[in-house]
C-alpha cells in the first residue's frame, strides 16, 4: 500500500527554485521549493518523509495559496518499519 499526499502552497508568489526532482526521496523538514513572496524568500518543506511522485510547478511559475506544488508518497511498509 502506498500513502499519498500533496505539497500545497500557503503563499502567493513565484517559484524561485525547485530543490528536488521526481523520484527523489526527501525527509520531513527538507526544503523542496523556494518561493519569492512580496516580502521575502520562503522555503516550502516536506511535511513527511517520502518520494516525490510529481512536480506541478517550475521556476518562474506564479503560485497562489492552496495550489498543489508537488505530489509525494511513502510505502506503508516503510512507515510501519521506520525509514531510518
Automatic annotation (TrEMBL):
It comes from the Bacteria. InterPro entries: Single_hybrid_motif. It comes from Paenibacillus alginolyticus. This is Lipoyl-binding domain-containing protein.
Amino acid at each position: 500500500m502506498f500513502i499519498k499526499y500533496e505539497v500545497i502552497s500557503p503563499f502567493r508568489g513565484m517559484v524561485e527554485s525547485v530543490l528536488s526532482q521526481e523520484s527523489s526521496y526527501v525527509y520531513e523538514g527538507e526544503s523542496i521549493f523556494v518561493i519569492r513572496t512580496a516580502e521575502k524568500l520562503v522555503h516550502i518543506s516536506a511535511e513527511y518523509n517520502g518520494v516525490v511522485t510529481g512536480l506541478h510547478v517550475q521556476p518562474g511559475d506564479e503560485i497562489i495559496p492552496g495550489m498543489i506544488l508537488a505530489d509525494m508518497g511513502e510505502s506503508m511498509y516503510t512507515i510501519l518499519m521506520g525509514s531510518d
